[in-house]
Structures are given as structure tokens and as C-alpha cells.
Design goal:
0% strand, single chain, globular
Length: 302
């Protein structure tokens, strides 16, 4: 398991160590990352579809996903609310006239679910014995992490400035701490070792990573649970941000987790104004970096 954890982390750090200046190459990397995400999600679904007794386990998986989502939601919101009370942040709510199409964003949030569902149907009906699915998924994930490391390094962001953004850093650390506390609280309910529960709680909304990493380590059923937990975080965040960012910006920005620097950023900007953007980017960047590190570390205990 320790070797697997190192395999997860090595490509990310390798990509982050390489500086690029070619804009055309960065554009190619962007589209390659997008394609790889859906390919990996399809493989995750394929593994689920090939799982013996899938239909018998759906009820248990639904219960596990529901408990994860609810406990993490309560813990994250409580922690971020306390952080807001300690470090209040002002926003320019409603300052932007151009607002993103929320319907389009919600539909985009459903695309990962459709990719996994397509994989499940293929695995269940057409390819129940297709070999090497896990190996292909692992190598695809390593390539994805390498490319994401390149993106993080070459996004025009100063790591020093991100780490010095007190609001963003505080939000990220509070989300990590509250998520890990929620993971520990769920140990008896999920009936799994503490380090595995903490790995489950460390996805922070990065569903393409958590689904494959957890699935590779704990089996396709838990991989499906991790994926659904994190994709539901993203969808809930899209609904939550416009409602509370005016009064509780730390909660609105933080609950989205790693997505605050990409998928939920347009909603954060339009609902909270430009002052929220550097905070969201700092928080999302740090959580994107911490998620694979923490999952790798916790899974290495097995």
C-alpha cells in the first residue's frame, strides 16, 4: 500500500516541478486533462459494473454515501462558520452584472455521473470480464496527476502568495480538519479502519481522484462511494454558494473544497464579487494539493 501511495504522489510532484512557457502546450494539456477525467470516471464505472453482487450492494452504498455527505456537510459548515466568526470577511455580493448560467453549471455537474453510469452499464452488460481495467485506470490516474501538477505550477499563481493568503489558507485548513474529524466520527458507522475512513474524507470534492484511488485501494464499491460523495459535494456547493456567500463567505467558498479554484469559481465570483476570487483560488489550490497527499498517506497505513 505504501508503494501505491508513493505512485499517487510522485507524478503530482514531478509535474509541479516542471515550468512551461508554451501557451499552446498548456491548452493541449487542459483538454487532455478534461478527456482523461471522463475516461477515468468511465473506468471507475466499468469496475463497478463488473463487481460481483453489484445489485445486492447498492442499498449499502446508498447508506454509506448519504452518511458521508451529511456528516461532512455538518462538520464542514460548522467549522467554516466558526472560522468566519473568528476571521470575518466582507464581500461585494451582487456586484457583478454578468451571472453564470446556473442551469448550465448544474447540468455540467451531472456529466461525471453520466460518465460513471455509462461505465457501469458497459461493465454490467457488455464487458463483465474485461481484464486490466484497474491497471489502465491506475496509469491513467498517474498521467492525470502529472498533468494537473503541470497545470498547478504553470497557472500563473505564486505559491508564496497563495500560502500568505490568510483567508484562503485558513479556509483550507479548517475544511481539512473538520473533514478528518467527520471521518473519525464515521468509523463505527462505516465499519472500517480509521485510516481508511480518513482517506474517504480527504477527497475534498476531487471526485475523479478519490473514486479511482479509493477504488484501487479498497475495492470498486468504496470507490463508487468516494466518487458519489465528492460529486455531490460539488453539486450541493453550486446550490449553496449564491444563498450564503453574502453573509457567510468562508462557508460558501470552503464547502466547495478543491473545486473553488475551478468549477465553482464562476459562481463564487458572480455571487460574492472579485474580493472572493483570490481567497477561493488559494483555498482550492491548497486543497487540490493536499487531497492526493492525505489520501496517499492514510492509505499507506494499510
Amino acid at each position: 500500500m505504501l508503494t501505491g501511495a508513493l505512485l499517487i504522489l510522485a507524478p503530482l510532484f514531478l509535474g509541479f516541478a516542471i515550468a512551461l512557457t508554451n501557451r499552446r502546450l498548456m491548452t493541449v494539456i487542459h483538454y487532455t486533462v478534461e478527456t482523461l477525467v471522463y475516461f477515468i470516471l468511465g473506468l471507475l464505472g466499468l469496475g463497478l459494473g463488473q463487481m460481483q453482487g453489484l445489485l445486492d450492494q447498492l442499498g449499502a452504498m446508498a447508506t454509506q454515501v448519504t452518511s458521508l455527505v451529511l456528516v461532512l456537510l455538518v462538520a464542514n459548515v460548522a467549522g467554516l462558520w466558526l472560522f468566519h466568526r473568528w476571521q470575518p470577511m466582507s464581500v461585494e455580493a451582487g456586484s457583478d452584472t454578468a451571472r453564470p448560467g446556473y442551469r448550465r453549471l448544474f447540468l455540467a455537474g451531472l456529466k461525471p455521473l453520466l460518465a460513471v453510469l455509462a461505465g457501469v452499464l458497459l461493465g454490467y452488460f457488455l464487458f463483465p470480464q474485461l481484464p486490466m481495467v484497474e491497471d489502465v485506470a491506475t496509469w491513467a490516474l498517474m498521467l492525470l496527476l502529472f498533468l494537473i501538477g503541470l497545470q498547478l505550477r504553470n497557472a500563473g499563481l505564486s505559491l508564496r502568495k497563495l500560502l500568505m493568503n490568510r483567508q484562503g489558507l485558513g479556509i483550507a485548513l479548517v475544511l481539512v480538519a473538520s473533514s478528518l474529524l467527520a471521518g473519525l466520527a464515521l468509523v463505527p458507522w462505516l465499519e472500517m479502519p480509521w485510516h481508511q475512513a480518513l482517506a474517504l474524507a480527504s477527497g475534498f470534492g476531487w471526485y475523479s481522484l478519490s473514486g479511482i484511488v479509493i477504488g484501487d485501494a479498497l475495492g470498486p464499491a468504496w470507490g463508487g462511494v468516494a466518487f458519489l460523495n465528492d460529486v455531490l459535494r460539488e453539486i450541493i456547493a453550486l446550490a449553496l454558494i449564491p444563498l450564503i456567500i453574502g453573509t457567510r463567505p468562508a462557508v460558501a467558498i470552503g464547502y466547495g473544497g478543491a473545486t473553488a479554484m475551478d468549477f465553482t469559481l464562476p459562481v463564487i465570483r458572480s455571487s460574492g464579487g472579485l474580493t472572493c476570487v483570490p481567497v477561493a483560488i488559494a483555498s482550492g489550490f491548497l486543497l487540490s494539493f493536499l487531497s492526493p497527499v492525505l489520501m496517499g498517506v492514510f492509505l499507506s497505513f494499510g
